[in-house]
Amino acid sequence: xxxxxPLNIVFIIDRLTNYRMFSSLIAEGCQRGLSIECWHLxxxxxxxxxxxxxxxxxxxxxxxxxxxxxxxxxxxxxxNAMAEALATRNDxxxxxxxxxxETLATQEQLARFTSTWCVIMYGQDTFKNLSIFKDGSxxxxxxxxxxxxxxxxxxxxxxxxxxxxxxxxxxxxxxxVSIRVIGNTMLxxxxxxIDNDAVRKKHGIPPGKNIAIYLPYGYLPAKKFKRSRxxxxxxxxxxxxxxxxxxxxxxxxINESMLKRFNRKLNLTGKALRDPVAREWLIKGWHExxxxxxxxxxxxxxxxxxxxxxxxxxxxxxxVYKKADVIxxxxxxxxxxxxxQELLSIASIGISFFSWSVLEFIYQGVPIINLECLDDRVENxxxxxxxxxxxxxxxxxxxxxxxxTVPDFIQNFSSRTLDDFSIDEDQRASYFDRFLGDMNHSxxxxxxxxxxxxxA
Length: 456
Hints:
The protein is α/β, with parallel strands linked by helices. It folds into two domains: 8-184 and 439-455, Rossmann fold (3-Layer(aba) Sandwich); 189-435, Glycogen Phosphorylase B (Rossmann fold). 36% of the residues lie in helices and 14% in strands. It contains 18 helices and 13 strands. The strands form two sheets. The protein has a seven-stranded parallel sheet. Helix 1 packs across helix 18 (443-455), helix 7 packs across helix 8 (258-274) and helix 8 crosses helix 9. The chain starts with 7 loop residues before the first strand and ends with a helix.
């Protein structure tokens, strides 16, 4: 007879985007009649900065208590208060987070934890954030389960840790840590039930019309490499006119004076001209306005509406605003399905820059173009590791993901047709096996099956 606790599961929500990875799990748990608690970390400092709009106020929770009888929502004003609540609750069987327990609680609090800690993989950041253990710290004795997308990606991530994070690999090699492969929890069969007509109506898209989705280059100034900043100036930031407000509950754009804008562009021009690579890109017109111009011509040729879906934390070129048929403002508070998943239900093709959204495109059977960019993802060895364009990796996979350099894209893309980008289903199955997980079972199903098996 099992001595495990009945399943009573807490989800840690420190940003609204946590619901991207957790919504399928919460929905599945509620459907199974399990006790589910969503604990929102509502620290005031999270309202500011370029991610302030992701502040997880309870009123923005994806799931409401009135709709789910086994669901409880709670707000905490600090990490310490949340950790202390976890340390004093003996009825919690599992805590689900995107980070190890050691990032939330002190060693004294961890010593009082009686729950199993579940870390949900969320792309490359899961492994990069293990840097907290790079000094060889043994961590805590908290029982931990690491849920990975696939064995291939887990091994790829561990090879990264071995190469760049010194002794951090000891964290996942401890006897109290186990690894389970379940797939990507962001992806769920709920997308099969999206009402395509309702999606078109919501965004003003004519009935029956299909779309191309363009994800603009997400500009944030490179932090470490001057060459990256120079390239960004030539490709993107020189062409940005609107700078969005990003604080909590702030909408619209920053009112930038003409003098400030002039000085900003003068400074960016200087950066681009002083670097030989950036200077060549500037002179030859290899920039985002030229990219979106080619996307526009491709859409006109292939009878597609051009839909642009930016992320609010990134600013992008003014030409993108002007060439788009529809710009979808997404404050990243809608999940299960997400706004992206809704748009993918009526999409014929996508274009993005080194974005892990390629996983969502292939999950929903939509071909996607990856555009290489010469920012920190090329200059920084750790970032370059995760942005390989070798055939067979995420960004270049036969008859599923087509990789282009920007000059090649500008020269050739607009002459292509949709038939040039047809998905091969056998190759798509291989992509699932390597990067997405089980084609026949959702990650949420496999997650709860594994927990229920443990308590049986």
